[in-house]
Structures are given as C-alpha cells and as structure tokens.
C-alpha cells in the first residue's frame, strides 16, 4: 500500500491509514522522495533538490497533509543523519494539522525528546535503541546501533546518539556506507571518527582523506 511505502521510505514508522489502491499522485510523490533520498546520500545535490520539489508538488496535488508532513520530516531526518543541523522547521509549521500520532512520535525522536516517546509506536528496528536512550544507557544504545540492518536507519541512530558512539561502531558503519556509496554518510562518520582518534599520524591521514572526499 502506497502510504505504508511512503512513510517507510521517509524513515518513518508505519502509515496511519491504508489505501486499497494508490492514486497516481501518491505513487509519484513516493517515488520522487525515494529518488531524493538516494541522490541526497550520493551527494548529487542538484538532482536531489529537483526530486524533493517534485515529491512536494505531487503531495500538494492530492491535498494530503500527512504525506506532505512525512516528506518534510523525512527531509529533516536525512539532514540530521549526515550531521546537518536541522530543527525540522518546515514540519513544525504544519504539525498542528497532522493527525497521525506515529509521525508526531517520530518527530519527538528527531528532537531527542526521549521521555515523551511512545515506545509502542516505535518499529522493531529502532525499538532497542530508543529504549536504551530513554533509560540513559548510552553504551547500550551504541550496541543496538550495530544491530540495525537498514543503512539509513543506522546512520540516523548514530547521529542521534551523538558523541557517545564508539570507534568500533563508527568503523563498522563506515564500511556499510561505503558499500552503498552513500558519500554524505561516509563523510559524516569520518568526521566523527576524526574527533575520536588520538594518534597524531592516524588523525593526519584521516583529515587528508576527508579533504579529498568532502
């Protein structure tokens, strides 16, 4: 069902409703956002921006606030995932119109409002991570990130964990981002790793690598 596909593709949880058959605008909005996500992570900025505008345009065509809110929150999540500061302003402006509790719950995760997150609305891939963060168990959260299979979800969880991520988790995640060719993810994680390396020579080489990639 297209709404479920859309929200999953935006890194969200599950849809608030299921349509028996997708409309053309829903399908196209979803497809453009999925293309935006990939081009964004590939660091193809011009293509990514074009895809994002198309995804928004088709969502507006159907007058669907839930879908439009999902797009804006998905955009914010991707920015956060690669270390770009984003307070989800576009989503915040429309939140009072959003009726889907799962979307609102996801926004709380992006804002790190751990105490206010309803764990029952968190999918299995995030549940252990969010539960650890709610408890303040940062070491445990780091361990759960290693077990997240989806690369984009892993990248977001790493960003939300912040400076508490271990070098082991970073190195493993960099290999995964490299496999998928997610340049923005690689650069973001290399910067985190740079700040944790103490050996001067190793840090110098990593900085040189970043200069070549960034």
UniProtKB/TrEMBL annotation:
Recorded superkingdom: Bacteria
Alphabetized UniProt keyword annotations: Signal
Residues making up the signal peptide according to the UniProt record: 1-20
Keyword Signal: yes
Protein name in the entry: Lipoprotein
Species: Sulfurimonas marina
Taxonomic lineage from the root: Bacteria, Pseudomonadati, Campylobacterota, Epsilonproteobacteria, Campylobacterales
